[in-house]
Protein: Acetyltransferase
Organism: Brachybacterium muris UCD-AY4
Amino acid sequence: MRVRDLGVEDARAYRALSTGAFGGREPATGPRPFNPAETAIGIDSASLPGGVAGVIAAGARIRHDRITVGGGVAACGGVAGLAVHPAHRGNGLFGPLLTAVIARCQAEGMAFSMLYPSNPAIYRRFGYQEVARENEVQVPLGDLQRLRPVPGRRLVPVTEETMPRLRSLYRELTAGDNGMLLREGPLFPDGLPGDGWSAVLLEDAEGHDHGYMSWTRAAEYEAVEGLEVHEILGRTRQDRVALLQSLGSWSTVTAHARVRLRTEDPVLDVLPSGRLQAAPGILGIVMMRVIDTAAALEARPAPAGLDGAIRLVVEDSTVPGGTCRAAGTWIVRAHDGAISAQCVAEYDGQEARAGHAAASRPDQGGSSDGAVGEVRLDIHAASLLLAGGRCMADARRLGLLAEGDPTTARFLDALLAGPRPSVLDAF
Ligand SMILES: CC(C)(COP(=O)(O)OP(=O)(O)OC[C@H]1O[C@@H](n2cnc3c(N)ncnc32)[C@H](O)[C@@H]1OP(=O)(O)O)[C@@H](O)C(=O)NCCC(=O)NCCS
């Protein structure tokens, strides 16, 4: 089955497929072209039994995002608008399409792929693993009245002019997270997002930025809870208090705010009362898949003070061999704050040329003859762990293959430590 690149001439047929599946209408002026930071691929209806020319039977877009990986940055293919035409559903197109998506992420040099599944089970079969869930709470605004103003902090309106300050704060304050999109153009255009989006910056008396809060105030006729808070990011605990205190000022017009949070968001720690409720509605699941194990590892810095090496084996039977570089055996080394992952053959060759005998020190997962402790992961465990913030025991609790002696496992856990992944942008 041939999966091909979709070009400008396919935009109309692809949009008919995606709006047919997910709703929405194309503007009367014609279909929007593909974003230059997306790769669109698809299968022609005409190539299938009963198919018709000019119709895309199955298609998907791959966003060229970059995400945070515990202080580093990795390229990530965000899968959006994946759909099969109703006339061709149930005929086995999903597998070849998703396999082509994975291969294309590899060809584009991506370390990971990410998606929001409507049906996680069908993606899990191809190595995608749930790494995060959207997280929203209902905050009773009356409770925030108890918060006192924070000295030395003032609020600044966010306009076209001050928006770059917010963008750079977002980048700075989420740099240590796992899974957060860097929000770069052209997927995230410069300027204000529009559609009622508003924000305030928090600065000190010298004009240095310390945080921001962004929200959308629902119009009176809309069924949504009064205030949707997208993000509350503060440099310190007190900065988050100052932003919540400002949120409390809405209590005269609405009783609750729906606040979107990161996984284990530090904002939760400064909410003054325990009267929180999960926001109603279905919260999205975020799945990720390793595309290139070495790139995924090398993208992140090694934690300070961690030195040593392990042998990492990743098994992937979910896609044909050669689809991507997730499976294989690597010597993974942490040294001087950096991680290197060398394919075993390449590693052995280099070591031999350099005349080095030892792969690592015995007390750090290796032995003096160069053999190192081994961790063996299936693709599901690799996708879970390499996204960051989870440990070998988490993978085993989920029934995934994550084997290794305790010392070696501890080394990998230390290497990938950090907050559990969060993603604040749905696509
Ligand atoms: C979901 C969708 C992409 C599946 O494509 P498809 O070509 O019909 O799927 P296939 O025929 O290749 O079947 C793949 C597997 O998915 C299962 N499947 C397909 N649709 C399903 C559904 N709605 N619910 C549960 N399982 C489903 C099939 O049973 C099959 O499993 P099997 O191999 O064990 O029989 C397609 O139905 C579709 O476009 N739906 C609307 C848009 C959508 O949901 N897109 C995904 C957004 S993340």
